[in-house]
Write a structure and sequence with these properties.
The complex is a heterodimer of chains A (411) and B (296).
Chain A: H1 2-8, E1 13-22, H2 26-34, H3 39-46, E2 49-59, E3 64-68, H4 75-82, E4 90-95, E5 98-99, H5 105-114, E6 116-119, H6 131-135, H7 137-142, H8 146-159, H9 175-188, E7 193-197, H10 205-222, E8 225-230, H11 233-239, E9 242-247, E10 250-255, H12 257-262, H13 267-274, H14 278-281, H15 284-287, E11 294-295, H16 300-309, E12 314-319, E13 322-328, H17 329-334, E14 355-356, H18 361-370, E15 375-378, E16 384-388, H19 390-397, H20 403-410
Helix pairs in contact in A: 8-9
Chain B: H1 15-60, H2 63-78, H3 81-96, H4 100-130, H5 132-147, H6 150-161, H7 165-189, H8 193-201, H9 206-235, H10 237-241, H11 249-258, H12 261-294
The chains are: A alpha/beta (411), B mainly alpha (296).
Chain lengths: 411, 296
């Protein structure tokens, strides 16, 4: 889905051949990396640490791009290159057509003020400023007059649900509340790009998922471009339109969540993916069988004819009002030939509930258990676009990929 | 001398060489002070005028006004009635035992020295925090300033400027400025990296970072440094009185030479009282800046 958009639009953030070597002599380290030496070899030889190695990324406007990796994989280093909190050793970073590497100090300052804002893992709030002053910080730095910045900050306090906390200090708030302040501060500058560095990692699981919901909710109205760093694959799958997986400073795989989940690029990604609760990460339409037999006929005779042509032993009956029910081959065969001209009415149909294509697998399990027949999958317009059988669901949810699935992966 | 005497005795310059070195250095410094003494003195003239004005102000104001203002400061800094009343009581007792004028003189020189120490110390501390090179250069200088016996650096100051208030102030500052420099440096370096990074990420300029984040967050440490600076300035009062600084130090000095035990004790106690008062006021102010972070 988002792949189609990509072809039309140009990336907002584009990173090419980015390298970062930490150490006394970055350039020498860089030569060694480019010569193909491993991280450990370079560390032994020069004492330099390779932070990032040949990173290429394109991030498109309006998407949530998740960069995932374990600690030490270089994800926090990478996100700090976007606004040049860390200087790369080599490579180019382009944001909205601006070559960030070419910016002078003053221009970089302006760039940081207006183009990007950032949310930090440990919040990075200023303990000597009240909640309101913290949220208004970005505007204050820009030189926005006090009355205006307070008004704008107050609106964001409301949006993130911290009404009444304006005059409190960060230390008086809980972790979740503090990060809401961090989020409001980032949104308050109206920057196009939001950098979130493990923004929810320091929070309790319950608060974390609450914050994720809030972020998704905000994103629906704001359409920011969000770069989100996390070490939690569940979080990545939940939030990300696209996911990039980093390992030891190397980009291992990049793509939409489903692709990463179903086609892990290597053992490392696979190990990650293994623990994911697929029922909670995948939607029905990503796993359904698209081939179905739809019967739109009025009479039983036509239905029998259509059923014979199809290789399935059941069919979904649809009319102008949408999906009506399921009819099986057995039912049709039991009908007397003389009744073939009769109207195909609901008495012949089995009442099988339909599921929405964008529903999570988890939510359809009860219906699945109540019905032997495969469930019809409806798209946004109410049209049947596929079916979901017990066998398919079982294959997806069990650890072992079924034989056909591995074949299709290789294809 | 036998050839291998260096085994039993440390090799040493002979007397004449040592004398030459001393003569050369002393001569050079003497001619330097003859040459530039006047212009340096002229440079410090405004400071002297200010010192004299401030001392006169304290001496000529009615005693109840001075006590009132000090008690007001105490209350403003601490919001504690207990401290305020103690300050007023202590000053009243000092006056009651006949040490009012000397106490005012001492206080004026201490306050001016502290003010100058802060004005000199803060920028140096900030510079140290920003550059490791500056830090590695300044730290040993501070060590020397704090360990060198005060009398030793009194000599060149007196040679250059004679005796009086200005050399006194300079001696006090040399002795008392290191804590405020050290703790400013430390305080800024201890500021949470992520908070500073956040400021940078939002496009704060280096001045906005300094005044908006680093200095406010370093304030508890800086206040501790200022407190130490005041304490060390008070400790210099007696030594400064040896080069003609009037105040509580002079009676102490007099009582050492004449063995007036009670006079010495009373003036010593007055110095202690001043020290405690300044300490409590500045500490409770530091505590309040710290508390404001917790929003209490």
């Amino acid at each position: 889905m988002s792949d189609d958009n990509k072809k039309d639009s140009t990336p907002l953030i584009s990173i090419k051949n980015l390298y970062k070597v930490f150490g006394e002599n970055e350039q020498k380290g860089l030569e060694l990396v480019k010569a193909g030496q491993t991280k450990d070899q370079i560390l032994a030889e020069t004492g330099d640490t390779v932070g990032l190695c040949d990173i290429n990324l394109d991030i498109y406007p309006g998407e949530i791009f998740v960069i995932m990796g374990l600690s030490g994989s270089g994800k926090s280093t990478l996100i700090r290159h976007f606004n040049r909190l860390i200087e790369p050793t080599a490579g180019t970073i382009e944001v909205g057509g601006i070559d960030v590497m070419k910016l002078k100090d003053k221009e970089l300052q302006e760039f940081r003020r207006h183009k990007m804002s950032m949310v930090f893992q440990r919040f990075g709030l200023m303990p000597h400023r009240s909640v309101l002053q913290n949220i208004a910080y970005g505007l204050q730095v820009q030189g926005v007059p006090k009355a205006e910045r307070q008004e704008r900050a107050l609106q964001w306090i409301k949006t993130v649900g911290l009404d009444g906390y304006a005059d409190k200090f960060p230390n008086q708030l809980s972790g979740g509340q503090q990060q809401r302040v961090g989020l409001a501060r980032a949104l308050c500058t109206d920057a196009e790009i939001l950098l979130m560095d493990e923004a929810f990692s320091a929070l309790d699981p319950l608060i974390r998922s609450e914050m994720q919901d809030q972020l998704i909710g905000l994103q629906e109205t704001l359409h920011k471009t969000i770069v989100f760093i996390t070490h939690d694959l569940d979080e990545a799958l939940r939030l990300g339109d696209n996911i990039a997986i980093l390992r030891d400073g190397i980009l291992v795989q990049q793509g939409p969540p489903v692709e990463i989940l179903l086609n892990p690029a290597d053992d490392y990604v696979e190990a990650f993916v293994k623990d994911v609760n697929r029922a909670r990460a995948l939607t029905v339409e990503t796993v359904m069988q698209p081939q179905v037999c739809r019967i739109a006929s009025e009479t039983i005779g036509e239905a029998v004819a259509q059923m014979r042509k199809s290789k399935h032993d059941f069919a979904y009956v649809v009319n102008d009002d949408g999906y009506q029910g399921v009819i099986t081959q057995d039912t049709l065969e039991n009908v007397e030939k003389s009744d073939y001209s009769n109207v195909l009415d609901s008495s012949l149909l089995e009442d099988v509930p339909a599921v929405q294509g964008d529903a999570l697998l988890e939510t359809v399990i009860p219906e699945m258990l109540d019905n032997v027949l495969p469930l019809p999958v409806l798209n946004d317009d109410g049209q049947v676009e596929g079916n979901l059988s017990r066998a398919t669901l079982a294959e997806i949810l069990s650890d072992q990929p079924s034989p056909d699935e591995t074949q299709s992966n290789q294809a | 001398m036998s050839d291998n005497s260096w085994l039993s005795e440390i090799p040493q310059l002979d007397r004449h060489q040592l004398l030459d070195i001393r003569k050369t250095l002393d001569g050079a410094y003497r001619s330097f002070s003859r040459e530039y003494g006047d212009s340096i003195e002229a440079f410090f003239d405004p400071l002297l005028t200010f010192l004299i004005w401030f001392e006169k102000l304290l001496l000529s104001s009615p005693w109840w006004l001075v006590i009132g203002v000090l008690a007001g400061f105490a209350y403003a800094a601490s919001r504690s009635w207990k401290l305020t009343v103690s300050v007023a009581g202590a000053f009243f007792l000092i006056g009651f035992f006949g040490m009012w004028d000397n106490t005012m003189r001492t206080m004026s020189i201490i306050l001016v020295s502290t003010l100058l120490s802060i004005m000199i110390g803060l920028p140096i501390g900030i510079a140290m925090a920003r550059s490791n090179r500056v830090q590695s250069f300044v730290t040993p200088v501070l060590d020397i300033m704090q360990t060198m016996p005060a009398f030793v650096y009194l000599i060149p100051v007196v040679m250059l400027l004679g005796i009086g208030k200005i050399p006194g102030v300079i001696a006090v500052i040399i002795y008392s400025v290191p804590p405020v420099i050290r703790l400013t440096n430390l305080g800024i370096r201890l500021v949470d990296k992520e908070v500073l990074e956040a400021a940078t990420a939002y496009g704060a300029s280096s001045m906005q970072r300094l005044f908006g984040v680093q200095l406010p967050l370093a304030m508890p440490n800086i206040m501790a440094g200022i407190n130490q600076t005041i304490m060390m300035a008070l400790a210099m009062v007696v030594i400064a009185s040896m080069i003609g600084v009037k105040g509580l130090g002079q009676p102490v000095l007099k009582s050492i030479t004449n063995q007036y035990f009670t006079l010495g004790l009373l003036n010593g106690l007055a110095i202690v009282a001043l020290a405690i008062i300044f300490d409590r006021i500045s500490q409770s102010y530091a505590k309040r800046t710290l508390q404001s972070f917790e929003g209490k």
